[in-house]
Write a structure and sequence with these properties.
With about 260 residues, this protein is of the alpha/beta class. It has 9 helices and 10 strands. Helix 3 packs antiparallel against helix 9. Keywords: Signal.
């Protein structure tokens, strides 16, 4: 009898499969799809090693509202992605990009979701020496700051004519610090990234002047190779769910994005 009651007691106190176990089982049974990201700057990627930032939370939304696929974020430099595309070996999707950046303005080489986020690249300058972009000539004789490896299409023609100097930096944070120290005449930086640093360092906000005309404004979407059409369609279908759209708007609000969408 004692053995019987002990066994019975063990049956009652043994935990039933938890929600976490069920979720783990669901993930294990789901087909894995890589989602590549390459914008190594906040708020998109805050800490890569911890997988924190807007991109990681957005991919988690994709996983939370469907269970057929497990979308896995992975950082890959843009140059490597370019090689994969050139060699037709791209085996995943790319998040946070625009058709023009991948020479697909007509959206025929890749599949594209609806716009997910909007952003704009600003011309900024020290508030004590404000700069307003009025065309190419307005950049002449300027010391222009930009992140190394980035292409600034309004700045590039001026540099090609050797009418201005480019001072490259390793990050947006360094770029902003140099401008505040007045070591640059003008810089180009994402508004979303600026807002992120202004929240961390509110005293900087009054030291920066914004050109009335930005460098460019655009939306960010998800690119998918055509061979991943079925996986892509699952993400597209999420836009028909009110609960997903509400969660997306909440995530955008958390990171300071507006509802307005910019188109080139």
């Amino acid at each position: 009898m004692p053995i019987f009651f002990a066994a019975l007691l063990l049956l009652f106190i043994s935990p039933l499969p938890s929600m976490a176990m069920e979720e783990s089982k669901r993930i294990d049974n789901s087909e894995k799809v890589y989602v590549y990201v390459y914008h190594l700057k906040p708020p998109y990627i805050e800490q890569l090693e911890l997988e924190t930032g807007l991109y990681f939370e957005l991919i988690e939304l994709f996983n939370s509202f469907q269970d057929k696929y497990q979308f896995i974020p992975q950082f890959v430099p843009r140059k490597r992605l370019n090689r994969e595309i050139a060699n037709d070996t791209l085996d995943g999707m790319i998040l946070g990009v625009h058709p023009v950046w991948f020479k697909d303005k007509d959206k025929i080489k890749f599949l594209w979701t609806k716009p997910l986020l909007n952003d704009r690249d600003e011309f900024i300058s020290p508030v004590t020496k404000p700069f307003n972009y009025l065309g190419e000539v307005s950049l002449y004789n300027m010391n222009i700051g930009g992140v190394r490896g980035y292409h600034y299409f309004r700045v590039a023609p001026v540099l090609k004519k050797r009418k201005a100097k480019l001072t490259p930096t390793s990050s947006e944070l360094q770029l902003l610090e140099m401008l505040i120290k007045k070591r640059l005449d003008v810089a180009v930086i994402s508004r979303a990234t600026l807002n992120y640093y202004f929240n961390l360092y509110p005293q900087w906000r009054d030291l920066v002047y914004f050109s009335k005309v930005p460098h460019e404004q655009y939306y960010r979407a998800l690119l998918s190779p055509i061979k991943l059409e079925s996986q892509f369609n699952i993400i597209e279908s999420l836009f028909e769910q009110e609960s997903f759209l509400a969660a997306l708007e909440g995530l955008k609000a958390k990171y300071g994005f507006s509802r307005e969408v910019f188109h080139k």
